[in-house]
Design brief:
With 135 residues, this protein is mostly beta strands. Helix content is 6%, strand content 45%. The protein has one domain: Jelly Rolls, CATH 2.60.120.10. The chain is built from one helix and twelve strands. The radius of gyration is 15 Å and the shape is globular. It holds the Pfam family FdtA.
Amino acid sequence: MSLVKWIDFQSLGDERGSLVAVEIGMDKAVPFDIKRVYYIYHTEQGVSRGYHAHKNLKQVAICVAGKCRMVLDDGANREEVWLDCPTKGLVIEDLVWREMHDFSKDCVLLVLASEHYDESDYIRDYDDFLKQVSQ
């Protein structure tokens, strides 16, 4: 089973430029109600981020500018992909370890989350993560 699940967003536009609308609902692209939106930008060269999992949070990561490399790990499988297209969203399920590497200078990574911020939902130690997913 692949950890990599993409959502393709429709790009609309004309000679003035392009637009991507992100919608939720039964027939829409995002598979959960969005309760939080944030974005990561100006990440210094050589800096990696993430290194955590969530117990009960789903996310969609969209690189709206530039690119970065995402590593996903469910404790049994480890996959990596490049986020480099503003019309593709990477679905990240709960109990999946994530790491973000190799941010381009112009990278803006938009994240849509299924829940509000809750520090108690984070698993920040990889060994603890492995214990939880093996139960």
